[in-house]
Amino acid sequence: MERLASFGNDPFDKPPCRGCSSYLTEPYIKCADCGPSHFLLCLQCFTRGFEYKKHKSDHRYEIMTSDFPVLEPGWTAQEEMAILEAVMDCGFGNWQDVAYQMRTKTKEECESHYMKNFINNPLFSSTLLSLRKTKDSHFAEGAVPFRPCDDPPRPTFDSVMSRDMAGYMPARADFMEEFDNYAEWDLKDIDFVDDDSDILRALKLSVVDIYHSRLKERQRRKRVIRDHGLINLRKFQMLERCYPKEVQELYEAMRRFARVAGPMEHDKFIESHALEFELRREIRRLQEYRKAGIKSFCSARVYERVKRMREDERRKRTMLCDVLHYINDGRACQQWLSKQAAIDAGITPAVTTITPSATGRRSAPPLNLTGLPGTEKLNEREKELCQVVRLVPGAYLEYKQALLNECRRQGGLRLAQARALIKIDVNKTRKIYDFLIKEGHITKA
Asked: Domain SANT: where (predicted)?
């Protein structure tokens, strides 16, 4: 097998001749006395008696050729290597392309030879059996499953889930494309020979050291992905959404430190802050009860029921104010009734602008947020802003997140940048920008 390792169809795969530096073609000569690196010569240099440093013309030699049968007559060693490379390139079963790439055998000959000698060969079966018996001793460092994921799914190639899993192959616990996937390219043409100068040898060793550092970084990233269970990203995101909004923001900020703390320590840190958030909310609720003079949980339930009734009455009064605003304009009143009917039917109403009446233009009334999606995610000040600006909560949350991300990326945000980022009315953009500045969510650049 050592002799077959250097043979191939492409002459550029072989090392050059040490005499004339031309690419070797079979047959060629290998010196049996020079070592440990091979001293190879073409037939022309060998017949001239080429000598170099320790190599002399009277040394023992070997004739290197692949023109001899290995597994069965009629198939040379070069053809055996060619069919293995063709099957690797074209795929198992694609015998028409395999035969076209080999050019010396037909489709039927390639199929029968490969099935007979590489699939149904009892010699290979016994070899695999012996390897299976010793797998505990030889393959202890094999594929490691991603434990936190509990057997990741195995999607088909190029599917949506496969792209979400970044090309992860669960059967091999590996990725189709590694981090720094072409790190080996800087190393593939390096060859250590005896006549290298000290500077050239040191340079080659430095390249090898750099390659080792890149491999360590690749393994470190894979270890972080494995330990934290990041391969099944959708499941990871679903678990993250179980936390309240404030804890999710903390989770996003502390994610970069997870690789330092470790998976268990990081999860304990997040869970402790989630518990702290729940305790603080419970303390605020108890303080509200104490401020209202409530001393028992039975009275607290009555208080909560009355509080909900009071909120409902406040919303009804707000709705009545909207009716009074629209009552003098028949067309505006019709639009308002259509919007309320859509809300009652569970349909998100279209945001319509109030047309000017016959008596002249007047300011639009505050937007009614009842039933609009995303309202429950807003605090009282944000609800008031959306009512005044007449902006639906879902759109406001998207604009707010976009401005926060841009401010975090640039370290500050100007009004002109905010207007270029969200394409809405400039007056609404200014009100949103001023509100976020006042609340401390963003800072001016």
From this structure: 70-122
